[in-house]
């Protein structure tokens, strides 16, 4: 072992030449077990290939095509995914495999390979700084964690961030207990963790803050170290600062998309209360050691807890040992890491993807507890070797069993293969489409997007860009009359097939091909169909019904206000008056979108402004003045915006208004516009 004074580290350390013995061999074998259980049937488990995996490689491919620059000619720090800038380091990692043919093996494989740094640095930290005898248990313990097993076999950025967090802790201990020159390296890996996964930003910042406080005297003992740290931090933080300057709205949008309580209008103390409530859930033993119903099924190992229940006593023992050794920087850091780990997940709803980083301190504490227990047993006569062998055999057997179970039984663990379940079918459906197109090149294939998130991204991964198919739903043909001929083949899940039949607008359904789910039931239908003869009459009747305004009452200006408005397909009308620019309403089809407000108590107003989207628009406002019943009109228009912006109109003066009519028309050739309004404000 390296003999280092933990209180006064030295730059020049005489290292003990450590021979490669059986302990090191066991450690290497543990790492080999870890890698084997990550790569065996990597393309078959998890059974889905998610859009959040596919987009990593797709974005990396575009990054290379664009000479590693974004549209503005800058080296990108973050990449957009689903309307939010939440991808960063993982896309750059995928650039290593993006030049090759798209493959689940490559996309997942590069991510799975990099995660080996978790058990590797955990073991080295246990050996060099915790000084425990059974440090080599680390890869065996990490391998057996169900939540980590699943996510380390994906290309999700949470796995990359979690692994980097362990490296960050390792190099901080090297700085704190071995050599001050490791500070820049520790900060570098802290920054990489920060950039790897958005929820880890809070974790890294809090961890760094507590490291600064508890090791204050050590940091400032050498006057050069603080300045070195500050300069390194400034350099590492600069890309993030520049990104926030260029995209000041991105953080709020991110919270809004996550439906975080921080994006709401509650008081700060109310939000703080929500934070601690969710934070405690992230540490709740029931969440970790019992199977739960809160996480999405595609992020669970059926029947298994996120962390092995049998290791829970050793984690408890590890915590007790750490609390008795808080003066030691390494043991102190184990507690700090545990306490800060759930903080990022607590900013929104706690989910295993956001809380996965907690497996790092849990695995560390489990190893510490196991070591303490085995050392105690080693003091008993003739009981030194047997417990160690039993522990290793149990860990290896559990890992092998878990791997075998996942690969052979996971396809039928859950029966929901659609959008709210496993989102199965990306690779399989793409293969069927390729085969069908080869046999029927004259057919136009229209693939439903309703069975997974960002279906176009998944299909692009397997079928190429531009897509050789149209991504659209039969619902569009059900909603309005569209071109439909015998060469159109619709690919849809069972619920869409049933809805199309029930609509009464189609006939002559012919299933020309199908693809079964893993449970043997039909998961996708390839079918042709045509409209019924009187379909125009049906559409005309529906259009008359949809043209009728919808009435509702909302609370506005301390009174109940009657609102009549065109039909909406997204949001409630109150979203337009809630003062939150992250919520919106979207018109179903009306152009112009009309809104009428009737006030029981007249309000004073001199103008109106709407937060709208990009298309050119015409705004007309009409008011009815209280008392004399006069009406006044005002209007304005936009030639289009580069981003959401306010469109304002004013009247000739200030009036007491009892009725307000708003008309917003999209001034384009789009035959079926969906008019968006994020906010409506009365100018008094």
Question: Main attributes?
Answer:
Jelly Rolls, disordered N terminus, five-stranded mixed β-sheet, nine-stranded antiparallel β-sheet, alpha+beta, 684 residues
CA-based shape: globular
Mean pLDDT: 92
Q: How many helical elements?
A: 25
Radius of gyration: 30 Å
Q: How many discrete structural domains?
A: 3
| Largest sheet report | 9 strands, antiparallel
Q: Low-confidence spans: pLDDT under 50, at least 5 residues?
A: 1-15
Structural class comes to: alpha+beta
Beta-sheet strand percentage? Answer: 15-25%
Please specify the SSE layout and strand pairing.
Layout: H1 22-39, H2 51-65, E1 79-81, E2 84-87, H3 89-94, H4 104-114, H5 117-128, H6 138-143, H7 146-151, H8 157-177, H9 183-196, H10 200-214, H11 216-219, H12 224-246, H13 250-257, H14 268-283, H15 285-289, H16 312-323, H17 329-340, H18 352-355, H19 359-378, H20 385-409, H21 426-439, E3 444-447, H22 455-463, E4 470-471, H23 474-479, E5 488-492, H24 494-502, E6 506-516, E7 522-531, H25 535-546, E8 550-556, E9 559-565, E10 568-570, E11 585-587, E12 593-612, E13 617-625, E14 631-638, E15 645-666, E16 676-683
